[in-house]
Amino acid sequence: QVQLVESGGGLVQPGGSLRLSCAASGSFLSINAMGWYRQAPGKERELVAHITSAGSTNYADSVKGRFTISRDNAENTVYLQMNSLKPEDTAVYYCTAGAFLRGGGYGYPYWGQGTQVTVSS
Q: Percent of the chain, pLDDT > 70?
């Protein structure tokens, strides 16, 4: 299976920046798509950004132009660069991935434990 571990969250002022990282480990042949979701207090978990194994990306309208998702396939790691942060970006951010398994199957979704991002003055 796949284990995902996020890092890089914290407290930042409005207009500031953070970079989240998520590294995949475990028993798998290769990681396929990866992405970031977030869940704010009292709200449902929502997709923030998504990146395919070939590097194609999608973003939620609310973060376009401010966030950038990228990946390092050699390290099985996905990043989320967050600029011009707003208070409404405050949430727990979760990494997700799908993977081709060594047993010949495909597993999804795998989830990280989440990392807190708080945007406040």
A: 100
